[in-house]
Amino acid sequence: MRILVVFPNLEDAKKIKKVLNRGGYEDILACNSASQVISVANDSDGGIVISGYKLPDMHYSELFGYLPREFSMLLVASPARLEDCYSREIVCLSMPVHSRELINTVHMMTMDLVRELKRRKKKLPKRRTIEEQKTIDAAKALLMERNQMTERDAHKYIQKLSMDSGNNLVETAEMILAFE
After folding, report:
1. Are 16 and 32 in contact (CB under 8 A)?
2. What is the DSSP string of 45-109?
3. Residue pLDDT, tens place only, 119-146
4. Do residues 72 and 49 lie in contact, with contact meaning Cβ atoms separated by under 8 Å?
5. What are the backbone dihedrals phi and psi of residue 26, each rounded to the nearest 5 degrees, phi first?
6. Residues facing 94 on adjacent strands
7. Torsional sign, CA 55, 56, 59, 62
8. What pTM value is reported for the model?
């Protein structure tokens, strides 16, 4: 999990990086421009962006809009600036930030991100092997030839049989081929 720290003053970003390093975080990059963060974020699998309110090349809210959805944002700003933050998706910390508070907040965000990424992974359909796909295609071809079905109808038929029998698509296709 990558942590990108971006503040207009690079020294401020490096100070936060040091605090996080002492807290046990390692994959941290200190930046002073939003464009640099966007570039790195697009090449990463996910993480957290810790940002100041106004960056040299854009506002924190613009940066948030450009981030991949695998990234969360932590806005660190004065209490007056935090009042302008209306997004519930952005976590906010008031300056001055205490080390323990920063580390605890990043830890909480990391745990939330890990949970969210696992949840998204579960939603993705499981990838079939080439052999499994060949089995399904062979069963569809058999149904199309034997029962004059379209490919779509053959696929729906296999799906229905699969649901009714409680087997997965590949097992159902194998059964169809076994009764050839």
Report:
1. no
2. S-EEEEE-SB-SSSBHHHHHHHS-TTEEEEEEE-HHHHTT---TTEEEEESSPPHHHHHHHHHHH
3. 877 776 677 899 999 999 999 999 999 9
4. yes
5. -120, -45
6. 77
7. negative
8. 0.68
